[in-house]
Specification:
FAD dependent oxidoreductase; oxidoreductase activity; six-stranded mixed β-sheet; Amino_oxidase; 32% strand; FAD/NAD(P)-binding domain; Polyamine Oxidase, Chain A, domain 2; elongated; alpha/beta; 8 helices; seven-stranded mixed β-sheet; 2 domains; FAD/NAD-bd_sf
Length: 326
């Protein structure tokens, strides 16, 4: 049995630690935030809630479809039977497709909690330095506390944090320089009264907003208020990275009023800036496992940008780690 440090408690980190734990290894998961799930995030307010990160996910590969079926059987996720619309500058039309969309239930990170059994977590712990000690690894947090030692370190943090942690001679560094993560502002709104908006979800291409949905239409969500989530485009967000709440709510209310055809009354709202919202990179292979240094990488940004990419990258890394420590 080996002892591993996993940095990051999003889907990649938790599913990786779960797989290694199931294989008989001991895993400690370090997460800088207070909760688990990363972008699989639901925020609860006094009397309403909303998914302000990942809005839904799909399954394409047979391997991930089988895992999604398992999550569904355990009651961790549900199908969201939504027909998306498409919003143009002058038009709003249905845009039906054959895509099956899933959401965590009753919160977006429900499967994260289900996969966490048997794992040890250090939340609100930002690891900012790795130290090689006697063939193993010691971790240091931002307050100078140390942890370890560990047989291997497995990094599933966002791209920028992962780059900062890797040793200078890491084999993955050249390829990682081709990867990028773009930001997104997210604004959540609870309405005083039903809006009458026909669409439950829409994709937009007006240069400001890319996505809006009636979050309360998702299965298992409270219905005390009609709630909406608006995601702003990466380019608009990058140009308004320090936007104040007034600008964000003005843009969001303008959109909802336009969809409803009349002014809407807002009960409550908040905005959240995701600095590392969506991954993209050139067609290069990022090495995930360095057996010589006993350090690994996983996350959607290692393969693409979808939730499925995060899970597949975790399974790929788990296979390689288990082979090294068999």
């Amino acid at each position: 049995m080996a002892t591993f440090a996993v940095i990051g408690a999003g889907l990649a980190g938790v599913s990786l630690a779960h797989r290694l734990h199931e294989s008989g290894h001991h895993c400690f998961v370090f997460e800088k935030s207070r909760g688990r799930g990363g972008r699989l995030s639901t925020r609860r307010r006094d009397d309403w809630q909303v998914d302000h990160g990942t809005q839904y996910f799909t399954a394409r590969s047979e391997q991930f479809k089988a895992e999604v079926d398992r999550w569904q059987q355990k009651g961790w996720i549900s199908v969201w039977p939504v027909t998306p619309w498409k919003l143009g500058r002058e038009t709003l039309v249905p845009s039906p497709d054959e895509q099956i969309r899933y959401v965590g239930s009753p919160t977006m990170n429900a499967m994260i909690h289900g996969l966490s059994d048997g794992l040890e977590f250090y939340t609100r712990t930002r690891i900012d330095r790795l130290e090689r000690v006697d063939g193993g690894w010691r971790l240091w947090d931002e307050h100078g506390e140390q942890y370890g030692q560990f047989d291997a370190v497995l990094i599933t943090a966002p791209l920028a944090q992962s780059l900062a942690l890797l040793p200078e001679n890491s084999a993955a560094l050249p390829a990682m320089k081709h990867a990028r993560m773009s930001p997104t502002w997210a604004t959540a709104i609870a309405l005083d009264q039903p809006s009458g908006i026909e669409a439950d979800a829409l994709f937009a291409n007006d240069g400001i907003v890319t996505w809006a949905c009636r979050d309360s239409s998702k299965p298992g969500r409270p219905d005390s208020y009609e709630t909406w989530m608006i995601h702003f485009s990466p380019s608009w967000t990058a140009n308004h990275l320090n936007a104040d709440g007034e600008l964000l709510i003005q843009q969001s209310q303008f959109l909802l009023d336009r969809l409803a055809g009349h002014p809407l009354s807002i009960h409550d709202y908040f905005s959240h800036r995701w600095l590392h919202a969506r991954a993209s990179h050139d067609a290069v292979v990022i090495p995930q496992w360095d057996s010589a240094q006993a350090i690994g990488l996983a996350g959607d940004w290692t393969l693409g940008s979808r939730l499925e990419d995060a899970w597949i990258s975790a399974q790929t890394l788990a296979d390689q780690v288990c082979q090294s420590f068999s």
